[in-house]
């Protein structure tokens, strides 16, 4: 097991709104009057200062997470094999392709090795660029080879510094989004500070560097910032075209770098669909965003050699269905409230039916089954029947795919983030309900009368999108803990925007019959400043203590195993074992694997279930036959899996295998009535007794406190 141990030592206030959240003082002809010379100069100065603060905070965040990584592992002092082992599970698999490209004789040979890979899955040749989202590793390795930096920077540092640099992009994008929504860069400053002080719940980049989400989420944040700007009213055509291009580029990069892109964009498309149905954002802009999503995914599909999982994704089926339904129902937004509601229900049903029909048709044509495990998992997770499916249960039993723990909210509350987020969410939800009802009733036109302005509740398109976005991604985070990072980062943006929004304070003060323009301005700046001061005084000492705490990487058993494999096995040897460990074997030793953690392939899932019979109750002959069918030369058994205590009974890997095989589980507790005792003992326990029935198939060649390696006999 990898562990971390203690290292052995050898105020100014923003005075004006610099980016108005929505253009005002529009003339009757639709034109916006020019700013007075003094106001324009002040805006330029404020934008400059706000931009400098944004870049500074982004760079500071990058340095902060890089320092935490160094302090936790003493990365600069440990050996190369220890550095590589620190890239745990699938992180090590992704980084191995970067290493492979760096070590290739040429770029062309490196690309050929990825397109015709026969070391990731034994007795199979697969296209890594099609199966996995590793174009970022390819691009980075090519960049490292052509830049004159080899003498000054090791490949691993070039890689991790790039990821830490993307954190700067991430924070700047969050800052800009909050700034655009509120109209003041003070909001961006608060959002960035919340992101940093809630680091445990907003990012995990410092200890899972190569994880796909750490590449993708910065681009997703940039896309949200661009969409926020796009949804502003009175946007000039040239700026709108440039913004659409920025949305497309960010969407493409997000899609290219993460295999779960389609599910995130489906939620985003649902948010746009809801707002469009309620007439809260312009239909033309929503249609452009649908087209951008489809175009970006299709471009990624081409780059991934026409990956069928993209073509069969729900997001493409949904977006096409919405566009078709919109063409069929041209008069969707006309009529009174009963008429509009009836049309809206029909529209939703039409979109739903078209989505399912198109998706089923595409999957039937492509014979697509790569994502079936996700739907099995979702079906079991939300109580639509119990399942004995091994893959679905493997997800259900992982904490990362469980419900969001309650202690998350206590941590977020300690920085005041959750309290303020709830306050802003409540006010904007009330405003959204009022605006939606008014839009559906067709009564919004009467509100333009000047004498009614005092009682009118408005919600800008960008704020409406931010509201629905945070609600939908909040539901995702509550149901699946691993996805909380998509919500908590936007939570920082949403809460800071609300706290610095003149419109929100105006609405609240009017409800309390206390509204004056002066009070609104005072609250808009004083409350955020007080919050910033509170955060600074409370958390600055803790951050300094965290940065001063020095530890080092310590995993001698895994280091010993990797060194033994490199020294005592041929380069062509094939290894079987757990998905997580084998990713490290490939990275550290370059040996061929039978299975790996990238689980988005049906054949690989079936193969993994078969390989895992080493932890089930099977005969030595059966296990040997299974392993040899995949060309296995060596099998690695881990005590931490064979005698697992991390999960409770029913969720241990050996329990999942027993249930899938129809056998009763070990230990005290209930079993389903149709499960029967196995005729054989557990393989991983019995093989250590060196009984003749086992030694005729397996010979132990390595052992330490954690791992046991057996060489397979090659029977004719």
TrEMBL record:
Residues 1-10 have a biased composition (Basic residues). GO terms for cellular component: nuclear inner membrane. It comes from the Eukaryota. Its main location: membrane. GO terms for molecular function: mannosyltransferase activity. Residues 1-34 are annotated as: Disordered. Pfam families: Dpy19. The keyword Glycosyltransferase applies. It is found in: Membrane. It is a multi-pass membrane protein. The chain crosses the membrane at residues 41-66, 156-174, 217-235, 242-258, 288-306, 312-329, 341-362, 416-437, 485-505, 525-543. Keywords: Glycosyltransferase, Membrane, Transferase, Transmembrane, Transmembrane helix. Belongs to the dpy-19 family. This is D19L3 mannosyltransferase. It comes from Sitta europaea.
């Amino acid at each position: 097991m990898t562990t971390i141990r203690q290292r052995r030592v050898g105020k100014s206030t923003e005075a004006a709104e610099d980016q108005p959240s929505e253009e005002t003082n529009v003339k009757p002809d639709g034109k916006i009057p020019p700013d007075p010379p003094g106001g324009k100069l002040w805006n330029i100065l404020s934008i400059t200062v706000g931009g400098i603060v944004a870049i500074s905070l982004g760079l500071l965040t990058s340095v902060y997470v890089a320092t935490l990584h160094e302090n936790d592992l003493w990365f600069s002092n440990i050996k190369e094999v220890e550095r590589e082992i620190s890239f745990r599970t699938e992180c090590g698999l992704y980084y191995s392709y970067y290493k492979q490209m760096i070590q290739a004789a040429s770029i062309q040979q490196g690309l050929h090795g990825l397109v015709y890979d026969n070391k990731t899955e034994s007795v199979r040749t697969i296209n890594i660029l099609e199966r996995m989202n590793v174009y970022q590793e390819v691009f980075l390795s090519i960049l490292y080879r052509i830049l004159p930096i080899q003498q000054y920077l090791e490949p691993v540092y070039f890689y991790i510094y790039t990821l830490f640099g993307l954190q700067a992009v991430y924070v700047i994008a969050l800052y800009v989004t909050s700034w655009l929504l509120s109209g003041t860069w003070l909001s961006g400053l608060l959002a960035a500070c919340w992101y940093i002080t809630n680091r445990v719940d907003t990012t995990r980049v410092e200890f899972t560097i190569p994880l796909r989400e750490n590449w993708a989420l910065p681009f997703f944040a940039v896309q949200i910032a661009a969409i926020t700007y796009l949804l502003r009213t009175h946007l000039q055509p040239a700026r709108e075209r440039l913004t659409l291009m920025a949305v497309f580029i960010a969407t493409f990069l997000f899609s290219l770098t993460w295999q779960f892109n389609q599910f995130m964009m489906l939620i985003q498309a649902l948010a746009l669909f809801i707002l469009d149905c309620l007439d809260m954002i312009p239909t033309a802009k929503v249609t452009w965003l649908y087209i951008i999503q489809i175009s970006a995914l299709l471009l990624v599909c081409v780059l991934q050699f026409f990956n069928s999982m993209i073509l069969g994704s729900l997001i493409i089926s949904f977006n096409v269905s919405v566009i078709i339904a919109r063409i069929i129902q041209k008069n969707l937004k006309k009529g009174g409230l009963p008429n509009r509601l009836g049309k809206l229900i029909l529209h939703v049903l039409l979109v739903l039916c078209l989505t399912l029909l198109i998706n089923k048709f595409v999957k039937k044509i492509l014979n697509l089954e790569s994502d079936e495990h996700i739907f099995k998992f979702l079906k079991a997770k939300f109580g639509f029947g119990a399942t004995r499916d091994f893959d679905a249960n493997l997800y259900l039993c992982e904490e990362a795919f469980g419900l969001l723990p309650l202690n998350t909210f206590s941590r977020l509350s300690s920085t005041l983030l959750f309290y303020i987020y709830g306050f802003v969410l409540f006010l904007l939800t009330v405003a959204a309900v009022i605006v939606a009802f008014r839009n559906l009733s067709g009564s919004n036109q009467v509100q333009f009368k000047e004498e009614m302005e005092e009682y009118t509740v408005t919600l800008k398109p960008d704020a409406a999108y931010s509201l629905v976005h945070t609600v939908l991604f909040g539901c995702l985070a509550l149901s699946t803990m691993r996805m909380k990072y998509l919500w908590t980062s936007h939570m920082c943006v949403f809460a800071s925007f609300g706290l610095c929004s003149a419109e929100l304070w105006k609405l609240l003060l009017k409800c309390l019959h206390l509204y004056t323009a002066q009070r609104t301005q005072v609250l808009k700046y004083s409350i955020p400043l007080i919050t910033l001061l509170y955060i600074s005084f409370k958390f600055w000492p803790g951050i300094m203590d965290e940065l001063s705490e020095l530890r080092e990487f310590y995993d001698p058993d895994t280091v010993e195993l990797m060194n033994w494999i490199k020294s005592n096995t041929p380069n062509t040897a094939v290894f079987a074992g757990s998905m997580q460990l084998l990713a490290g074997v490939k990275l550290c030793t370059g040996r061929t694997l039978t299975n790996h953690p990238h689980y988005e392939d049906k054949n690989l899932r079936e193969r993994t279930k078969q390989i895992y019979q080493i932890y089930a109750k099977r005969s030595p002959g059966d296990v040997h036959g299974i392993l040899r069918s995949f060309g296995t030369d060596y099998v690695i058994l881990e005590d931490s899996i064979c005698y697992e205590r991390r999960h409770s009974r029913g969720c241990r890997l050996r329990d999942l295998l027993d249930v899938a095989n129809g056998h009763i589980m070990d230990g005290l507790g209930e079993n389903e009535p149709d499960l029967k005792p196995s005729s054989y003992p557990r393989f991983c326990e019995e093989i250590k007794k060196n009984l003749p029935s086992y030694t005729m198939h397996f010979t132990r060649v390595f052992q330490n406190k954690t791992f046991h390696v057996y060489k397979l006999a090659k029977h004719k």
